[in-house]
Amino acid sequence: MPTLPAKAAPAAASSNSSFFRSFHTPHLLWGRPITVGQGVFHLLLLACLTPWVTPPLALALGLVLAQTIGNPFVAQTKAFTPRLLQFSVVGLGFGMNAHAAVQAGQEGILLTVGSIFGTLVLGFFAGKWLGLGRHVVHLISCGTAICGGSAIAAIGPVLGAEDDALSVSLGTVFVLNAVALFAFPPIGHALHLSQQQFGLWCAIAIHDTSSVVGAAAAYGSQALEVATTVKLARALWIIPVAFGTAMVFKQKEAKITIPYFILGFIAAMVFNTYAPAYVPAAKALGPFMVRLAKAGLTLTLFFIGAGLSVSVVRSVGGRPYVLGMLLWLTVSIVSLCVICQAEHP
């Protein structure tokens, strides 16, 4: 195939090695320029749509891509990921029962409230001890306390945070999310946690909804139902925390972002619970939407992994990781102890 002038390679593949340059040299394929790196990306994308690639494996494939040849579509995946995650969450609602979800939400409400406020308070004092800026501390604390990157993206504009603070906070949370997705299911099996226990633990202790759902899905269907319900109820705390942030940081004209997609999840769950009794055809819609949602979640985790390049990980620095690890481990251990104690008083 004819070779076109080479474009600049991504940071992850900026080596002078001709091997890495070859991945980013465009060639004409059916009259259109395409690089080998773009071809690899599309092949991995298609693989993630097959039944053999699980959400954790999709994240791993994305991480490998990011650390080797780089993500050739960084801007596109970054913009598309939040929308795909929201669609996936709504789709999962078609596989859940409203009555069971309400019960799961009620069981997790006290632990949710306690962990949110405990994390914010601990983050404040730990951040001062580490000498980090107030904005970075508050963003990492909110990301750990509520729902990871979604909380950071919502609280950042309210806080008036600069891009550097947002990047550091998001990088910290995304790296810990990747660790949690792989670590939690084996820990759950080793401790012989029930489906209910593991789902609740995931929702409390893992930052992002994508990793919560991925870890819970790997553990079992009941764990997935509990984890998704409790996590989305937890995500609604973005609103009061955002208002509190505006008052504490004296941001009078701040715009509060409301996670409306949660309403879509509730509507899908109500439809799945009541519609089949009146519309028999609705029974077939639920499983179809859940399959689409799980495929969307797998792609979401692939995109997230593909965005975690070496440069992103290194740009965070040491102290934000220390803060993130301290908060994450504290929430994980304390919530696990509370959950196990409640099951075996």
Automatic annotation (TrEMBL):
Record carries keyword Manganese: no
Localization terms from the record: Cell membrane
Chain ranges passing through the membrane: 40-64, 84-102, 108-127, 139-159, 165-186, 198-220, 232-249, 256-275, 295-313, 325-344
Gene Ontology annotations for the cellular component aspect, listed alphabetically: plasma membrane
The keyword Transmembrane helix appears for this protein: yes
Topology in the lipid bilayer: Multi-pass membrane protein
Entry-linked InterPro entries: UPF0324_pro
Pfam annotation, one family: Cons_hypoth698
Chief place where the protein resides: membrane
Keyword terms, alphabetized: Cell membrane, Membrane, Transmembrane, Transmembrane helix
UniProt cross-references to PANTHER family, sorted A to Z: INNER MEMBRANE PROTEIN YEIH-RELATED, UPF0324 MEMBRANE PROTEIN FN0533
Family: Belongs to the UPF0324 family.
Name this protein carries in UniProt: Putative sulfate exporter family transporter
Organism: Hymenobacter setariae
